[in-house]
Amino acid sequence: MNTGHLLRSIPIFEGLSDDDVLALSAELERRSFKAGEMVFSMDDGGNAMYIVESGDVNIHLPGDGSRRISLKDIARGEYFGELALFDEKPRSASALATTDTVLLELQRATLERYLERRPRAAMAILRTMGERLRETNTLLSARAAKNVDEEFDRKLTWSDRLADQVAELNGSWTFILFLIGLTAVWCVMNTSIVLDRPLDPYPYQFFNLALAILVGLQGPLIVMSQNRQSLKDRARAETDFKVNLKNEVNIETLLRELSELREEIRDRDDRAPRSSM
């Protein structure tokens, strides 16, 4: 797999020029891990990020047996540990190679030397990070939950509404019974018993032509309605993701504040004078 293409897929590097990506990809180091070998452990010092060239990596919170919590499975072409490029904090989770794996390692020192030689690349990375930070702030400050159906219905044109009505009518017993009744009436009316000179005698060529035109118009209208339904389902999924992400961030904030409160209470208890027995 082309290392330049892998770098381009990482959000913080997507603003780099082709020349900058090529130069940075030359700085990557390949590291091999056997199945079951740890890439790094939680609380280890972080000084590099990794891109999976081949194999699979599991990101997890360590624990014995069932207490181990799997967070994410990283496959070929994906990356992890990118925050270590910008801070010196310990790793927040462990990474385990679940199969024989080859990783492309980018160390913080390597990136620092690269950015010293290419200040324009540094500005491109900062610009990309700034844009994503704005998107995150907008997401967290805005109301994530919304009624997708109302949003779509508000933007429907008359042609969209017509397509939805046709799709709804064609999927009902009303349309089936109407078509059966119309066919029966047409066949009876165009017999010599009712009319001396039938307008559309057997084999009812005009009626067949009308049915063919009807079917030809129904198909595109139904597909238009189905495509719009697919867009609506995708919007629902995106809304659910934003709601879940915001809830996750808020829960993490509450847990951190609760942990800080417990530490503060424990410190006060330790400092409080103990009564004599």
Short description:
It contains 8 helices and 8 strands. With 277 residues, it is α+β, with helices and mostly antiparallel strands.
Biggest sheet features: 4 strands, antiparallel
Number of strands: 8
Count of DSSP-assigned helices: 8
Rg, alpha carbons: 32 Å
Low-confidence stretches: none
- The share of residues in helices is 40-55%
Give the mean pLDDT. 79
CATH topology of the largest domain: Jelly Rolls
Largest beta sheet: what is the strand line-up?
Answer: 1-8-3-6
Order of helices and strands: HHEEEEEEEEHHHHHH
Q: Do you know the CATH architecture of the largest domain?
A: Sandwich
Whole-number tally of structural domains: 2
Folded structure, characterized:
The chain is of the alpha+beta class. The protein folds into 2 domains: 3-141, Jelly Rolls (Sandwich); 148-266. Strand 4 (57-61) and strand 5 form a beta hairpin. Helix 6 (158-170) packs across helix 8 (205-271). The protein is built from 8 helices and 8 strands. The model has no long low-confidence stretch (mean pLDDT 79). The radius of gyration is 32 Å and the shape is elongated. The strands form 2 sheets. It has a 4-stranded antiparallel β-sheet with strand order 1-8-3-6.
